[in-house]
Amino acid sequence: LLLGLDAFDPEVALGWATAGELPTLGRLLGECATCTVRNPYGLLVSALWPSFPTGVGPARHGFHSWDCVDVDTYEQRISRPCWQAHEPFWERPGPAGRRVAVVDVPHSKVERPVNGLKIVEWGNHDRHFGLHAWPPAASAEIEAKFGPHPAFGRIPAEGDFAPHDYIH
Which of 131, 103, 148 is nearest to 6 (CA)? Predict the structure, then answer.
């Protein structure tokens, strides 16, 4: 299990886990190996998630930020992550017969089938493509069972940014 807590202060998380406010996280921290991950200096927040699972930096995968300037027109535009050319680590176990479950990795997309389950953009903070999953029927099952993510019911459906950016 790889659990990445994006935009969550580790000292706050550890304090809450120790105090019993996050009992599941506290139990995981007590039973599992942990390590601190440090981002390379200069790696902007949006470039982190495509870089981490593919092992290549923004110079190769091309996603630096959601906001970019078109080099031909100098117009500001919204950028979409697109890392099909770079295989994320969760695609390697499938052909070896291992099943995977990938849930809400920011800036990711269901590009190809996976041996297992992949859910994208149900509850993560940055949205580009809308809720989709592998197998494809999983999206409808999630919406039927749980409905839209609680924060997403309060923001414009066409939004690209984090739900709290719209709420606040």
Answer: 103
CA gap 65, 134 in Å, rounded: 26
Beta strands in the chain, from DSSP E residues, in sequence order: 67-69, 76-78, 100-103, 116-120, 132-134
pLDDT for 24 beyond 90? yes
Check if the beta carbon of residue 86 is closer than 8 Å to that of residue 60. yes
Q: What is the mean pLDDT of residues 30-36?
A: 87
What is the rounded distance in angstroms from the CA atom of residue 22 to the CA atom of residue 45?
Answer: 25
| Coil/strand/helix, residue 134 | strand
* Helix, coil or strand: residue 153: helix
Non-local CB neighbours of 141 within 8 Å, separated by 6+ positions: none
Q: How far apart are CA 68 and CA 79, in angstroms?
A: 6
How many C-beta atoms surround the C-beta of residue 74 within 10 A? 7
Question: In this structure, what DSSP letter does residue 101 have?
Answer: E
161: pLDDT confidence band, cut at 50, 70 and 90?
low
Contacts of 87 (CB under 8 A, 6+ apart): 54
Please give the model's pTM, rounded to 2 decimal places: 0.73
